[in-house]
C-alpha cells in the first residue's frame, strides 16, 4: 500500500521535473536576455489581464447599456405606433424617430420576418446584448441584422397590421471606439519596453566590461579597468582590481626572488667552470665539465618553469614566423619539416613565451621523429597549432602524465635535453597563462601530435 502511495506521489514530481527541465532548456542564457524577460513577462501578463477584464467587463457593460438604450427607443416607437393609429401615414412618428431618436423608420406591409442572419464574430457581443434587451422591452416578434452595409443595424418588429423597419447607426448600440484603449495600451507597452531595454543595456554594459577585463587578465594581457555601474557591480569590479593588484604584486615578488636566486646560482656555476678551466685537460675534469653543463641546463629549466615568463608584456605575435625559424633549425639537424598556414597567423601574446612554448614542443618532436609537420589554423576565435612527428609517440594512458613536472617517460621519449622532465610542463604552463591549453594525440604521421590552442 505504501509503495502505491509513493508511486502516486512521485508522478507529479516527475512531471514537474520534466517541465522544469524543458523550460530551463528554452530559457535564455544571457543575463541581458533574462533581465529583459523579467521586465517583459510581467508587462505582458498585466496587459493581458487588463485586456481580459476590459473585454469581459467594461466593453460588455458598455455594449449592454447602449443596446438597452436602443431597445428602449424601439419600444417607444412601437408604443407610439400602437397608441396613435390615426396618425395619417405616421408622419409624426417618422419625424420623431428621425429627429429625436436618430433612427430611420419605415412601415412595411405585414409579412413574415426573415430568417436569422449569420452573425459575424466581431459583432457577436452586440447580437447577444441587443437581442437580450429587445426581449425585455418588447413582446412582439422581432428580427435584427447587425451586418448591414453602411455601419447600420436593421431592426424589424412584426405587429398585427404592419412591420416596422428601423435602421440605427451601429455606434448607438456598440462600443466601437474600444480600439483606442488597445492602441494606448500598445503604445504604453512599447514605451515601457524601450525604457526598460535602454536601462538594462546600461546596467549590463559594466558587467560585460568586467568580464572582458577578467578574460584579458586571464590571458596574461595588460588590463586597464575602472569599476562602473551599480553599487554591486562596482563592488565586484573593486574586488577584481584588488585581486589583480595582489596577483601582480605576487608575480613581482616572485620574479625578484627568482632573479636573485638565478644570479646566485649562475655565480656559483661560473666559479665551477673557472675552477675546471684552471685544472687543465683530464678525464676527471671533462666528466666534471659535463656535470656542470648538465647542472646549468637543469637550473635554467627549473628557473624558467618557476618564473613562467610572467614579466613579459603582450604584443602582436606572428606564429608563422616562429614556426619558420623552428623549421630552419629542424632542417639544420637533418630532419624534414614543413609549415602550413591557414588564416591570419597573428595573435596578441607574449612573444618570447610563445616561442619557448613552441620550441619545447618542436624540440621534443625533433628528438624522436625524422619527419615533422607544423600547421597553423585561425578559426576566428582561437589560434590552433599542430606539431606532428613520425616518432614512437606516447601511450594514451600516459599522455596526461607527460605534462606533470619532473615526470619522465624514459621508455618512450623524454621531454627535454636536460632530462629534467619540465619541457611539456613549461609549455602547458605558458599556454594556460595565455588562456589556452595543449593536448596530445596520435599524429597522422604515426607519431605524436601536440595541439596548441590559444585565444586570439
UniProtKB/TrEMBL annotation:
<keyword id="KW-1133">Transmembrane helix</keyword>
<dbReference type="InterPro" id="IPR005467">
    <property type="entry name" value="His_kinase_dom"/>
</dbReference>
<dbReference type="GO" id="GO:0000155">
    <property type="term" value="F:phosphorelay sensor kinase activity"/>
</dbReference>
<feature type="transmembrane region" description="Helical">
    <location>
        <begin position="31"/>
        <end position="55"/>
    </location>
</feature>
<keyword id="KW-1003">Cell membrane</keyword>
<dbReference type="InterPro" id="IPR004358">
    <property type="entry name" value="Sig_transdc_His_kin-like_C"/>
</dbReference>
<dbReference type="InterPro" id="IPR050980">
    <property type="entry name" value="2C_sensor_his_kinase"/>
</dbReference>
<keyword id="KW-0472">Membrane</keyword>
<keyword id="KW-0902">Two-component regulatory system</keyword>
<dbReference type="InterPro" id="IPR003660">
    <property type="entry name" value="HAMP_dom"/>
</dbReference>
<dbReference type="Pfam" id="PF00672">
    <property type="entry name" value="HAMP"/>
</dbReference>
<feature type="domain" description="Histidine kinase">
    <location>
        <begin position="260"/>
        <end position="456"/>
    </location>
</feature>
<keyword id="KW-0597">Phosphoprotein</keyword>
<dbReference type="InterPro" id="IPR036890">
    <property type="entry name" value="HATPase_C_sf"/>
</dbReference>
<keyword id="KW-0418">Kinase</keyword>
<keyword id="KW-0067">ATP-binding</keyword>
<dbReference type="GO" id="GO:0005524">
    <property type="term" value="F:ATP binding"/>
</dbReference>
<dbReference type="InterPro" id="IPR003594">
    <property type="entry name" value="HATPase_dom"/>
</dbReference>
<keyword id="KW-0547">Nucleotide-binding</keyword>
<protein>
    <recommendedName>
        <fullName>histidine kinase</fullName>
        <ecNumber>2.7.13.3</ecNumber>
    </recommendedName>
</protein>
<keyword id="KW-0808">Transferase</keyword>
<keyword id="KW-0997">Cell inner membrane</keyword>
<dbReference type="GO" id="GO:0005886">
    <property type="term" value="C:plasma membrane"/>
</dbReference>
<dbReference type="InterPro" id="IPR003661">
    <property type="entry name" value="HisK_dim/P_dom"/>
</dbReference>
<keyword id="KW-0812">Transmembrane</keyword>
<dbReference type="InterPro" id="IPR036097">
    <property type="entry name" value="HisK_dim/P_sf"/>
</dbReference>
<dbReference type="Pfam" id="PF02518">
    <property type="entry name" value="HATPase_c"/>
</dbReference>
<feature type="domain" description="HAMP">
    <location>
        <begin position="201"/>
        <end position="252"/>
    </location>
</feature>
<feature type="transmembrane region" description="Helical">
    <location>
        <begin position="179"/>
        <end position="200"/>
    </location>
</feature>
Amino acid at each position: 500500500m505504501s509503495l502505491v502511495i509513493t508511486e502516486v506521489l512521485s508522478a507529479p514530481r516527475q512531471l514537474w521535473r520534466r517541465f522544469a527541465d524543458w523550460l530551463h532548456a528554452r530559457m535564455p542564457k544571457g543575463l541581458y536576455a533574462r533581465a529583459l524577460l523579467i521586465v517583459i513577462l510581467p508587462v505582458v501578463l498585466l496587459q493581458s489581464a487588463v485586456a481580459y477584464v476590459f473585454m469581459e467587463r467594461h466593453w460588455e457593460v458598455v455594449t449592454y447599456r447602449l443596446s438597452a438604450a436602443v431597445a428602449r427607443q424601439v419600444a417607444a416607437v412601437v408604443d407610439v405606433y400602437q397608441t396613435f393609429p390615426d396618425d395619417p401615414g405616421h408622419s409624426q412618428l417618422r419625424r420623431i424617430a428621425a429627429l429625436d431618436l436618430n433612427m430611420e423608420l419605415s412601415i412595411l406591409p405585414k409579412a413574415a420576418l426573415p430568417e436569422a442572419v449569420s452573425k459575424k464574430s466581431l459583432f457577436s457581443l452586440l447580437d447577444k446584448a441587443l437581442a437580450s434587451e429587445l426581449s425585455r422591452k418588447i413582446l412582439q416578434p422581432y428580427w435584427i441584422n447587425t451586418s448591414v452595409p453602411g455601419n447600420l443595424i436593421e431592426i424589424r418588429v412584426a405587429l398585427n397590421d404592419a412591420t416596422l423597419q428601423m435602421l440605427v447607426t451601429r455606434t448607438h448600440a456598440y462600443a466601437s471606439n474600444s480600439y483606442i484603449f488597445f492602441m494606448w495600451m500598445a503604445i504604453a507597452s512599447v514605451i515601457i519596453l524601450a525604457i526598460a531595454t535602454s536601462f538594462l543595456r546600461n546596467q549590463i554594459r559594466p558587467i560585460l566590461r568586467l568580464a572582458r577585463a577578467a578574460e584579458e587578465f586571464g590571458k596574461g594581457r595588460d588590463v586597464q579597468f575602472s569599476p562602473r555601474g551599480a553599487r554591486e557591480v562596482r563592488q565586484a569590479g573593486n574586488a577584481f582590481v584588488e585581486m589583480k593588484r595582489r596577483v601582480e604584486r605576487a608575480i613581482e615578488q616572485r620574479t625578484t626572488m627568482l632573479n636573485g636566486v638565478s644570479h646566485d646560482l649562475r655565480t656559483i656555476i661560473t666559479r665551477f667552470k673557472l675552477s675546471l678551466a684552471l685544472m687543465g685537460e683530464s678525464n676527471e675534469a671533462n666528466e666534471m665539465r659535463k656535470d656542470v653543463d648538465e647542472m646549468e641546463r637543469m637550473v635554467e629549466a627549473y628557473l624558467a618553469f618557476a618564473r613562467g615568463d610572467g614579466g613579459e608584456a603582450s604584443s602582436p605575435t606572428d606564429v608563422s614566423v616562429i614556426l619558420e625559424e623552428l623549421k630552419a633549425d629542424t632542417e639544420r639537424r637533418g630532419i624534414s619539416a614543413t609549415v602550413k598556414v591557414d588564416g591570419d597567423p597573428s595573435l596578441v601574446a607574449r612573444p618570447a613565451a610563445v616561442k619557448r612554448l613552441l620550441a619545447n614542443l618542436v624540440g621534443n618532436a625533433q628528438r624522436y621523429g625524422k619527419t615533422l609537420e607544423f600547421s597553423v589554423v585561425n578559426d576566428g576565435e582561437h589560434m590552433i597549432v599542430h606539431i606532428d612527428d613520425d616518432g614512437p609517440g606516447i601511450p594514451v594512458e600516459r599522455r596526461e602524465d607527460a605534462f606533470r613536472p619532473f615526470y619522465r617517460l624514459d621508455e618512450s621519449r623524454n621531454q627535454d635535453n636536460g632530462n629534467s622532465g619540465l619541457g611539456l610542463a613549461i609549455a602547458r604552463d605558458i599556454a594556460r597563462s595565455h588562456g589556452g591549453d595543449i593536448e596530445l594525440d596520435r599524429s597522422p604521421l604515426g607519431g605524436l601530435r601536440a595541439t596548441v590552442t590559444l585565444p586570439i
